Amino acid sequence: MKNTSLNISIENVTKKYDEFYALKDISLDITSGEFMTLLGPSGSGKTTLLMVLAGFTNPDYGSVKFGDEEVILKPPHLRGIGMVFQNYALFPHMTVEQNVGYPQKLRGVSKAEISRTVDEALTTVKLEGLGHRRVDELSGGQRQRVALARAIVFKPKILLMDEPLSALDKKLREEMQIELRQLHDKLNMTTVYVTHDQKEALTMSDRIAVINGGELMQLGSPNEIYEHPQNGFIADFIGESSLLPVKVSKGNVSIGSAKIKVAKPPGKDGDYLLVVRPEKVFLASANKKNDENYFHGELLDSIFQGESQLLVIKLANKLNKEQTLRIRIPNQSVTDKAFPSIGENVTLALKVADSYLVS
Amino acid sequence: MNLISDNVNQKELRRLAAKEGYTFFGLTLPYLVLVIALIAIPVGWLFYLSFIGRDGTLSLENYERMWKSKAYIKIFITTFKISILTTIICAAIGYPLAYFMSQLSKKWANICMVAVLIPFWTSLLVRTYAWLVLLQKKGLVNNILIDAGIISEPLKFVHNTTGTLIGMVHIMLPFLILPLYANMRAIDKDCMKAASSLGATPTRAFWTVFLPLSLPGLLAGLLIVFVLCLGFYVTPAILGGGKVIMAAMKISSNIEMYFNWGAASALGVVLLVVAGIILFIASKLVSVDQLGNR
């Protein structure tokens, strides 16, 4: 059951509350059939943007087009979008079937057709046979599936989701992420997904729009956003990076007194941050290589975390003022190698290709 | 296996639980005594008196009178008519107001709530006489209407059903609004958004989602108002001017004018039983509805 989907184009959308910008001149094109995630911390404006798309919030100015049609003046019930809310927003006085059939009933669909499409939607979300249940008899995960079925039963061209998994426990959430993604690929609806969970965004999206302080900070594929964050905020927000202050002068990059090499030296001199991802740093072997940067420090803590071992290292003072670095070593090698013990001096290596600077 | 008495700390833990039980009992004791002294015993006495005839023997004459005497039948009809009308008018005024308040921000809703509750803090008698002053032949309302040229002769607002209803609606309104507003506040706002995003016009969303979800609160409010109206005395007595006679007034005149405790008690018992039946039916309805709410 593939749908024809619509592209969304957002232009110059701005929303101000008194002196505070909830959305600041946001322009964003979402291609038809794309899974776009709006990612940002709470209060960043991502939900406001979703509400603008849904029609529940009117911006001060700006344009929102579904396909070629301007919808900014249209009330929500005429926009033809499917929407999934954070707390499900199921109708407690209706059964599962009645909930899922609600949008069809509004559209004047015949009883037989309602029953057929409701069954189809419930099957799609793997809830076949639960139609007669009351909403309060369902678990959190099942409620979320009902909410999803209700949002897709009328085959909307656009699906909006507002942190739909945040109320679920971690394991269920991770399962649902994969399922939602598969469902999206199957139904091919243009999907706009709001989350503050960077891992969720990386897992599910075709592209991620990172939003902070009402502004669009970076737009790109999960890989681009992770590997090449455009600024310190994104580098810090996505993944578990350590950010080390570095100085660039005349093309030379230095941390404290030590010189390092970076993948792409910036054109301009000044202060930058070196993004160090915990999984990209490793304990250096005895023979040094030309394509690696080295850091010396003292092991402060070594934490067993199941699939990996987290090491916290205090960098030697000559590099900088006290600065800790976290590195993550996969568990399989724990048994292979002898680990440094706490208090020991260690040397860490980071490949030059992985040494990435942000301003 | 150990014997039960050997289980570690079991005796002490049981004693602790028992002590907790005594504490709770002790805390409820004053209330229990009050209920027995002020409700159970007088109501029992009332029941007893209602079965005593004028000659002091056991008889059913007090109840027989009620469905044989035209005067009593008229009183029951008036009581129910006034109570039902008051309840309906309260709902018609209170529902939109409660809805409006439930959509306001917390701050403004609280201000509105204070406005709703202020009359509560004024004496019932004062409010009723205030209506008498406003509504009488040369009162403020008639004067304004005449000065504005809307009417030429003063309208009769008091000492009739109209006056009684105006006064009773005013006094009963908070009892309807309080439970209804609490219910409406608890309705998930996203439910209305969901309905809207799924294609419901605001009107449709209201009828299919908001109204059904607000029914438990509405029902609770209607019941409180109706049951309170059944036994209402002060306001109908003053604003009805002796022309609108409800059950409570008949009880009073039975005692004060005729010293007929039996007749008064029988009326009281009937009111109590009617109120009891209504509350019982309603408790079934509300609990079924509330299951749907959570």
Question: Which features does this protein show?
Answer:
heterodimer, A: 359 residues, alpha+beta, Rossmann fold, OB fold (Dihydrolipoamide Acetyltransferase, E2P), 2 domains, six-stranded mixed beta sheet, five-stranded antiparallel beta sheet, 9 helices, 20 strands, 35% strand, B: 294 residues, mainly alpha, MetI-like fold, 12 helices, 78% helix, 0% strand, flat
SSE blueprint and pairings:
The complex is a heterodimer of chains A (359) and B (294).
Chain A: E1 8-17, E2 20-30, E3 35-39, H1 46-54, E4 61-66, E5 69-70, E6 81-84, H2 96-106, H3 111-124, H4 140-152, E7 158-162, H5 170-187, E8 190-195, H6 198-204, E9 207-212, E10 215-220, H7 222-227, H8 232-237, E11 242-249, E12 252-255, E13 258-260, E14 270-276, E15 281-283, E16 292-304, E17 308-315, E18 324-330, H9 332-336, E19 345-351, E20 356-358
Parallel strand pairs in A: 3-8, 3-9, 6-7, 7-8
Antiparallel strand pairs in A: 1-2, 1-4, 4-5, 9-10, 11-12, 11-14, 12-13, 14-20, 15-19, 16-17, 16-19, 17-18
Helix pairs in contact in A: 2-3, 2-4, 3-4
Chain B: H1 10-50, H2 61-68, H3 70-103, H4 106-117, H5 124-135, H6 140-147, H7 161-186, H8 189-197, H9 202-230, H10 234-239, H11 247-256, H12 261-293
Helix pairs in contact in B: 1-12, 2-3, 2-12, 3-7, 3-9, 5-7, 7-9, 8-9, 9-12, 11-12
